[in-house]
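To: structure desk
From: M.T.
Subject: fold request, one chain
Message: Could you run this one when you get a chance? Sequence is below, nothing fancy, just the single chain.
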Amino acid sequence: MTERLDELLQVLDLEELEINHYRGRSPNDAWQRVYGGQVLGQALVAASRTVEDPNRSAHSLHAYFLRPGDPNHPILYTVDRIRDGRSFTTRRVVAIQHGRPMFNMSISFQTDEPGLEHAFAMPEGIPDPESLTPERELRRQHGEAAGLDPEVLAHFTRERPIEYRALNPQNDFKPEKRAPKQMGWMRVKEPMPDDLRLHQCALAYLSDWTLLDTCTWPHGVSFMQPNFQTASLDHAMWFHGPFRADEWLLYVQDSPAAGGARGFNRGLIYSQDGALVASVAQEGLIPLHGDPKS
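Reply: Done. Structure tokens follow.
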């Protein structure tokens, strides 16, 4: 197991404190606040640990981010075993830090059942991920051009266990006004164990990586501006079929609307063979204070 994969699996490997109570930790390289995808993935791990039927996997989750997470302190996840039915299992997870709820999520698990099937087709003419520039390299180029302090540049371009390659990359230091649509290939960099539930937790982690940025594109702003604030407010996912998070997945994202200092974003996730494996929806906080050029 490589150091990069070990880092991700450690983040997703919660410590069981008591029945229905788990403790999660943040990686040592986190700054300011906990990455939202980390909390999504850890909460799904906690819920999955309480589902005894191995043939049931998550088919949907609905989450709310209540407070920013502190990366310097552990997160307590408490699971409420709401229902265990013949085909469906329902769980509710509350994440607590400093004695206060900072996140909650409802998850539904289902036994695999046959039924009617249809799905939107994957967009045509998509470049192969290997032909695209890795996000880490683009960040290095953009950061050096912007004259970033070496310590900040090192953090901005640090090695991560996940990989993203954008089809239409944006320069966060000089954002252009564009239509609120983006696509990119993403995956966990190293091979993972053969466990669908673990791959779902990893995809929940991945799904928050670029989605909120989509609603900022028509306005030519980015999270790098000191007068611009971004934060996930809620997040929902639906899993449509099996997949592997350690193989390339196409993330097709758009933002139908923004208003009230909030931006709404959607995503469709395809496997490389064209199967629609998951859908995502998220609303985020995007207030802009003062001069956008400050």
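Reply (cont.): The first strand starts at residue 15 and ends at 18. Let me know if you need anything else for the meeting.
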